[in-house]
Amino acid sequence: MENLSLDEAKRRAAAAALKIVTPGMRLGLGTGSTAAHFIDLLGAKVAEGLKVVCVPTSERTRIQAEGLAIPLATFEEIDELDLTIDGADEFDPDLRLVKGGGGALWREKIVAAASKRMIVITDASKAVATLGKFPLPIEVSRFGLEATRRAILREAEACGCGGPVVLRKTPSGEAFMTDSGNYLFDCVFNVIPAADELAQRLSAIPGIVEHGLFIGLAKAVISASPEEIKIYGQLD
Ligand code: 5RP
Question: By CB atoms within 10 Å of each CB, which of 27, 64, 156, 204 scores lowest?
Fold first, then answer.
């Protein structure tokens, strides 16, 4: 898929997700280029009178939503969300995801976990048989960075994963900082043969704030190509 078609596919997936939104819903708003299409389309519906209230998963998303006058709230004001719509960097046949390419994985996971349903929107290139081709993002504490890197390498090896664990940098060469003031490692494993076990082991490392394996969270993936829209899982 060339870039124009890729973007068109993302917008088609976003448009399909918008059809699931009903008046009065409390929504989680994801982060990334596909989620940005959804927010854009949602903003148009809100301008027409649709009533929803949303929790954003990043500052970028918050700014976009505010610009479109989409009503926002926090978890101090809302106890649970009806639906979260978010993108993904990869998904496998069990709807396990790799997320965090946009650096928002911690807030994305908090929002998804607080939602009755998480529906993922992607272009068709994100479907994989086995996770890991996309480097796995892990949000980490700035304190103890090298101890955390070593622990990740050790636990990854125990799960059959190998490869560099690279500190994410900005284009100007600074360490990338998340909205919550943490750093990110990108783990270039190429293949994650035991994603469930790796997720458990990573969660036990103290320096890890959160990892980008989303397991048991997505209820469905809406995956679009210029030719068709495929639904994996159950939308309702
Ligand atoms: C951000 C994410 C995004 O959902 C993921 O990177 C997909 O992005 P895009 O829709 O731009 O392909 O996890 O942290």
Answer: 204
